[in-house]
């Protein structure tokens, strides 16, 4: 069975950041932890930051998938993402405090913006969304991510379910009329709200 080198390196980085600050971990540390060669590392990742982004995309927000945005269950994907935020909070806290160029926080905002644009465009239809709807999508994308980051960094006393429900309710209030108008009952946000209200 072939070794998944990316997963191997991701596991090594997550393990190492429990032992020493993430900012101090080097490619040499990762090589020693996994036994892979320097060339093998660079065959898979450009640098440590690229590996950090891989962990975020593959292990934390894996439910937010391209290109099948219409197949994404908003409630399930949001809950999964927030549960992973809890599971990997130590890693995320450290990664979010690294403020270099192309840092994780920038990557998170850019990914969220692109996904939300694609999500709303898919529901809007084949014509390009007007500028105001693009702004609305970006606004809610940034607001949702800002609250996630605050929750991660500051250990805000709110459960996964409550944070998810708050986000969904605000999307219903702020986006439902804009994107779904009279067709509200077919809105994925209404469906997400119904779903989360029945969760324990």
TrEMBL record:
Pfam families: TetR_C_8 (PF14278), TetR_N (PF00440). Residues 3-63 form the HTH tetR-type domain. Keywords: DNA-binding. GO terms for molecular function: DNA binding. The keyword Transmembrane helix does not apply. InterPro entries: Homeodomain-like_sf, HTH-type_Tx_Regulator, HTH_TetR, TetR_C_Firmicutes. Residues 26-45 bind DNA. PANTHER family: ACREF/ENVCD OPERON REPRESSOR-RELATED, TETR-FAMILY TRANSCRIPTIONAL REGULATOR. This is TetR/AcrR family transcriptional regulator C-terminal domain-containing protein. It comes from Candidatus Dorea gallistercoris.
